[in-house]
Amino acid sequence: MSSTWKSLGGTVLGALVVVSGDGIRLDVFWQGTDLKFYHKWRNSGSIWLPLGTESKEVSSVADVRISVVAPGLGIVDVFVKGYGNNSIWHRRYESTR
Q1: Which in 4, 33, 69, 84 has the greatest CB count within 10 A?
Q2: How many Cα atoms occupy the beta-carbon half-sphere of 63 within 13 Å?
Q3: CA–CA dist 84, 55 (Å, integer)
Q4: For 14-45, how does the pLDDT look when each residue is reduced to its tens digit (9 = 90+)?
Q5: 66 pairs with which residues across the strands?
Q6: What DSSP string runs through 20-79?
Q7: Among candidates 13, 76, 91, 10, which has minimal Cα distance to 43?
Q8: CA-to-CA distance for 82 and 93, rounded, in angstroms?
Q9: Residues 6+ apart with CB under 8 A from 41
Q10: In Å, how far from its chain's centre is CA 96?
Q11: pTM (global) more than 0.90
Q12: What integer best gives the mean pLDDT of the chain?
């Protein structure tokens, strides 16, 4: 097993949030310095998606607060505080792995 650190790319403003709903898939969420939230994930193995330094944008309406929960197999619920209006935003991701 390798113990070498590997860059996933991106620039991070606040804390990282990592969840796993099934013990195999990992989902990582963070806020970039452009104030948008981003998402990267990995199934079994070592390949993170999207590939390379690209990340999937989750939201462009969020403040620096994010909460993520994985309530079941292949389900991830993301909650963010709206930027400037203090509202709560939600997005659900479902996958088959």
Answers
A1: 69
A2: 10
A3: 24
A4: 778 899 877 788 888 888 888 778 888 888 77
A5: 80
A6: -SSSS-EEEEEE-TTS-EEEEEE-SSS-EESSTT--EEEESSEEEEEEEEEEETTEEEEE
A7: 76
A8: 19
A9: 25, 26, 27, 28, 48, 49
A10: 17
A11: no
A12: 79
Half-sphere exposure of 54 toward its Cβ, with a 13 Å CA cutoff?
Answer: 6
Q: Which of 73, 80, 78, 81 is nearest to 92 (CA)?
A: 78
The token duo for 76 is 């991830």
pLDDT value, residue 12 = 85
CA distance 62 to 69: 17
Spatial CA neighbour of 44 closest among 21, 26, 70:
26
Amino acid identity for residue 67 in this structure? S
d(CA 65, CA 74): 23
Please give the DSSP secondary-structure letter assigned to residue 14: S
Residue 52 CA from chain centroid, whole number: 15
CA angle 60, 85, 36 (to 5 degrees): 15
